[in-house]
Amino acid sequence: MCGIVGYTGNQSAAPLLLEGLKKLEYRGYDSAGIAVTEDHSIHISKVTGRIANLCEKTEDGRLTPGTTGIGHTRWATHGAPTEPNAHPHASNDGRFAVVHNGIIENYVELRQELTREGYRFESETDTEVIVHLVEMYYAGDFKKAVMKASNRLRGSYAMGIVCADEPERIFVVREASPLILGVGIGENYFASDVTAMVAYTRNVIYLEDGEFAELTPDFIRIYDCSGREISKPVSRITWDIQAAEKGGYEHFMLKEIMEQPRAAKATITPRIQGGEVVLEGLELDLTDIQKIMITACGSAYYAGCAGKYTIEKLCHLPVQTELASELRYSDPLVDEHTLLIVLSQSGETADTIAAMKECRSRGAKILAIVNVVGSTIAKLADCTLYTWAGPEIAVATTKGYTTQLLVLYLFALYVAKRRNTLEPGQYRRLIGELKGLPKLMQQALDMNPRIPRLAKKYHKAQSMFFIGRNTDYAVALEGALKMKEISYIHAESYAAGELKHGTIALIQEKQPVIALCCNPSVTDKTMSNIVEVKARGAEVLAVAERGNQKIVSLADDMIYVPKVDTLLAACVEIIPLQLLAYYVARENGCDIDKPKNLAKSVTVE
Ligand code: AGP
Description:
By secondary structure, this protein is an alpha/beta fold. About 35% of the residues lie in helices and about 25% in strands.
C-alpha cells in the first residue's frame, strides 16, 4: 500500500524524506515523490519506479533545498503508475501539496464539483481532490482550510499537507489509515509506520481516526475532529526496524492474515454505493454470455473454485473452473459467448497469461481480477477489477485469496441483478451480509485463540487430510495448499463423499483429518464421514459454524467460525485454516515468508 513521510526542522528535508521512503519500500510501490517548501514556494519531484530514480533525479535531495517537506511511495489503485499520478499532488495555485495513503470513496462526486468550480486536474487519482479542496477553502487560515477539506472526504486517508505561505508548518490528518508522529528536538516527523523514522526518533505519537495534527520544528499540536486541541501520550518504540516493517508481527504472512478485515473493507466499501453494487471498470456486454470459465493457478484457482458456487447459484450461468496450466493445452471449447474470468494476485503468472491468450484467440471476453495495478494480466484483459488488497509480501497468499473471493461475490451480485435471476429480497440481504464480512473476518481471527495449541498437537504429522463437501470442499483445497506450502507437511484436500471410493484405505491410527462442516446443506453428510474416519482411528479437527453443538461429540478438536451465508462463507471459513498452517509451520521452524522452492510470482512455465 502507499506510504507517507514528512519532516520539519533545522536540517535539509529532502535527504531525510528520501531515507524515510526507502524504509517504506518493503510495503510495495510503483512510483514516488517528495515536496519541499522553501522561500514561500513548493518544489515537487516525482518519478515512476524505484526510490533510486528519485534519488538520482534530486541528486539525493541536494537539488531540493528547504527544511520542511513531505514524501510518498504510491501503490497504484486509482490510475496507472505514471508520473502525473504519483504523489505529492499540487493545488492549481501551487500554494499547497498533499501526500495520501488510503482511498477517497467519494472522489468522483468531489472531482465533478471541483471541476465545475474551475479547478484543473492533472492526474487520475482520487487523492488530487484533497489538495483542490484545501485551495478552495483557503482564506489565509491553513488549519481551517484543512479541517473544511477533511470534513468533505469519505473513505480512508492518512495525509500530509504543506503550504507555501507557511513553509515550516505541516498538517496531517488520520482516518482509517495509520499515521504516526515522530517527536524530535527542534524537529518533528510523521510517517505511515515507524520504520520510516525510528532511525531519527523512538518517541512517537499514534494518531487515532478523526484526529489531525500541526507540526512545526518547535511543537506538535494535536486536535480532535472538532478542532479542539487534545493531549496524547508519547510512546517509546522498542522494536528493531525489521520487526517494525512487519508491524510488530513475527512474519509478513501473519501481518497479512491479520490485515484481511481491513483489506476486505478496502475491496468492498467503494463498490457498494446507495445499496447497489457498483463495479467501475466492468465495461463488458454480458448479455450474450452463455458460460463463464474461471482460470488461474494455485490459490487463485482455488478462489475460483469457491467463487464458482456463488456465481452459478446467483446468476444461473454454468461456471467451469480450469487450471491455467491445463487450459492452455486443452484445446478449450471457448467462443464469443464465453466470459473468461482470470484471477491473479501478481498479474504476472506465466501459465495464466498463456491461458488468457489462448482463450482470447477463440473469441472469449476477458475479465481480470488482480491485485497489482498495471500488471501484464490487467493490461491484457478486456477489463479489470482490482482487489485493492495492498501489496502482499509473503509468498503464501492470504489477503490476495480472500479479496479475490470478495470481488467474485460482488461480480455475482452485479450480474445476477442485471440478469434478474435473484430471489425476492436476496440482493439487498446479500449486500447487507457482504458489508458485514470484514467484521465477521475479524471475529474469525479473534475467536480461536487455541489454534497455536492445536498446532503444537498436529505439527509432527506426516500427512493430513482436508475434507469437505460443496463449498466446504472448495475451502479445503486452499486449506491444504496453505499447510503444504509453508509447513512442508503433505496435505491432501478431498471431497468428503469420495473417501469411501478408495482414499479411506489410507486412514490409519492418529491420522489427522481436518473436516470442514460449515455448509448447512451438507454438514450432516460430512459428519457421517467424520464417524467413518474416526472408526478407523483418525484424529479429527472439525471446522464448524459457531453454535453447532452436534459436531462436538464427534470431533477430537473444534475450530469455530461465525455464521455466514454459504455463498459468502469461504472468505471467513479459510481464516482459521490460514492460522493453523501458519502456527504449524512456526512450530516446525519453517521459513514462513519465503518457503523453499517457491516464488511469489511464477513468471515461468
Ligand atoms: C499461493 O499461496 C501460492 N504462492 C501460489 O499458489 C499462487 O497462488 C499462484 O502461483 C498464483 O499466483 P498469482 O495469484 O500471482 O497468479
